Amino acid sequence: MYAAALLIAAAAAAAIGYLLLVLPTQWLKVEKIRHPLGLGIRILQISDLHIERMRIKPRRLSAIIAREKPDYIFLTGDFTKEEKLLSRLDPYLRMLAGHRIPVYAVLGNHDYQQRKVIRLIKLIQYYGIILLRNESVRMPGFELIGIDDYSTGKSNLRKSFQYADTDLPRIIITHDPNVVLAIKEPYDYLMAGHLHGKQLNLPFFYTFRPMGKLPAMGIYKGLHSNNYGTFYISKGIGQTAFNLRFLVRSEVTLHYL
Fold this sequence. Notes:
Elements: H1 2-26, E1 29-34, E2 42-46, H2 58-68, E3 72-76, H3 86-98, E4 103-106, H4 117-126, E5 130-131, E6 135-139, E7 142-146, H5 157-161, E8 170-173, E9 189-192, H6 205-208, H7 213-216, E10 222-225, E11 230-233, E12 251-256
Parallel strand pairs: 1-12, 2-3, 3-4, 4-5, 7-8, 8-9, 9-11
Antiparallel strand pairs: 2-12, 6-7, 10-11
């Protein structure tokens, strides 16, 4: 009887642990954000793949893309920090290329932890994905600015804005949202990731794991604005450190601009 009770208790604890910690990594949410920019475009943002801790298969992402039909796909960094795992990333990039939708990307801090980040860059570019590293590109109706990762010191704001048209709406993609505290140029909309919506939604999380001034101010997910523009922080699709989430679902984000 005692042994049976222990088994039941263990099974119940395992089930609760799965529901609270594992399911949120698989229960993918398509977050939909509307911003009155007036461009009439839909942008699908996919952030923080962290392929070494990815529970969402390429076919699930492909189904979302087929259903939502975005005009552009923006990848906001942290593909993987393991050079040896680039083969796992390949099916995701191949799937994105197969949809024949323009894809633009920036790198994240984990990407720069690879000994030879050039292999990741070449893989991204092989699939026709445009990687922006402190540069801008003229798009139909807007200027797209890609700012390299802030936390690793790769950002160059002067270079990023140098040729950006001031007469067009400015959309920025970057990885670490802390860069908004350094930007002194006007922009219309910025997309970032990096913070995973806290990933483990615990009190004082950013006291024990400092992630910059922005989360210390309580800004670590969702839509915000400052004197220079509006910015959105994605909760990301993958995990870092632990392949778990607590009270935070994984997400991809559809921006209506």
